[in-house]
Structure formats: C-alpha cells, structure tokens
Write a structure and sequence with these properties.
There is one protein chain. The protein is mainly α. It has a single domain, classed as Butyryl-CoA Dehydrogenase, subunit A, domain 3. The chain is built from eight helices and two strands. It has a two-stranded antiparallel ribbon. Helix 4 packs parallel to helix 6 and helix 4 runs antiparallel to helix 7. It is globular. It starts with a helix and ends with a helix.
Length: 210
C-alpha cells in the first residue's frame, strides 16, 4: 500500500545524461571514485577536465539523488504536517524564482519543493545553460541550484529524519549529503551562512574524514 501511494505522487522524472557523451564519461568517473569510499578525493576535479562541465555533471547527479530521497518521504511531507518550508524552528524559506514568482511567497514544504524541483529541472533542460560551451552565467546558475537543493536536505534532516530512520534510509541520506557537502566545499559553491541549518552535522561528517 505504501509504495502505491508513493508512486501515485507525481514527481520529477530522472534527468539522464546521454550515453556516449563526454559528460556521461565524467559521471562514470565520478561513480567509480565514489566506489573507492574516499569522498574527498571523489569530488576533486579530474585532471585535464573543464570545471564547468564537472560541476554540471555533479549538479545533475545531486538533483537525481535528492529527487529520489525526497520521493521516499513525500507521504510524510504534506500541507498539514509541513505548512511552511522550514529547516528547524529558526530557518524558514519563501519561494521566488525571479521570473514567474518575483516576490518571495510563503508556502508549504511540499509546494515549495515542487516549485524548487520544477525550477531546477527547467534549468537542467535549458540548453543555453547546461551545455558546452557553457555561458558566462553558468557558475552563478549552478550555485543557485545547489543552494536550493541544500534546502531540501535541510528540510528532510530537520523535519523528517524519524521517517528516514523508520524506512532505514539514514545511511543512504548521510552518504548522499556528505558527498554533496564535500563537493560544494571543494569548489566553494554555497555561502557558509546558507549552510547554517545543518552546520553541526556538516562539522561531524567532516571531522570523521580528517
């Protein structure tokens, strides 16, 4: 029954990187180094590769991971349980995308995350942004995407970690988040203030790897 209610919830389709493309090779490289278990090493720019392309490939990968992780707890994240998009009592997020919604609006977490994932999907599908040669504004778009994806992790950890534990997915969530954090730290992609809602967890994950 549980899986039935999950699959009926329309969620974003997985974003695929075309096989045979250079980005596909980079993704395979990333997966291979991840398998070694050394996440600090896995996030480093492979020798001779283009930084923008490496960030693009990993951004798509994180989008897919977060999409999947959030997909497992959508039934617990409802208008009733999460009337505001928050990461604990001190952090509340309001949605604006600068085009359709210019002034930030307060909305429930599922609504916010739906807006957010749809917006990210649109950026990833935009061939003027996510393709070689990368535009001048590529890095600022990628930073905005990663900053917003972080908020989904923050919401899951603060509001739904008990559900994640019940589903026995905490190891999967922690590995995904740790990979994400090491990546954004390696290339300085998210402002430290933005990471504040999960600062303690970030420090704990980092200290285990020193």
């Amino acid at each position: 029954l549980v899986s039935g209610s999950r699959s009926s919830k329309t969620f974003k389709p997985k974003k695929n990187i075309p096989e045979g493309s250079h980005q596909y090779e980079l993704l395979k490289h990333a997966e291979a180094t991840l398998g070694s278990g050394n996440l600090r090493q896995a996030v480093m720019l492979p020798e001779g590769e283009d930084l923008n392309e490496w960030i693009a490939v990993n951004t798509v990968d994180f989008f897919n991971q977060i999409n999947m992780l959030y997909g497992t707890i959508t039934e617990f994240c409802t208008e009733a349980s999460c009337p505001v998009m928050s990461a604990g009592p001190r952090y509340e997020y309001h949605w604006a995308d600068g085009t359709n919604i210019k002034k930030p609006i307060k909305c429930s977490a599922p609504k916010y995350i739906d807006y957010l994932m749809t917006w990210v999907q649109d950026q990833l599908d935009d061939e003027t942004i996510f393709r070689v040669p990368f535009p001048k504004n590529f890095m600022s778009v990628a930073k905005t995407i990663l900053k917003r994806l972080f908020r989904v992790y923050a919401h899951i950890y603060h509001q739904h970690f008990d559900s994640v534990m019940r589903l026995q997915e905490e190891a999967h969530l922690n590995t995904s988040f740790k990979h994400f954090i090491f990546f954004v730290q390696e290339f300085n992609l998210i402002d430290r203030r933005e990471l504040a809602p999960l600062q303690e967890l970030i420090e704990k994950l980092g200290s285990k790897d020193r």
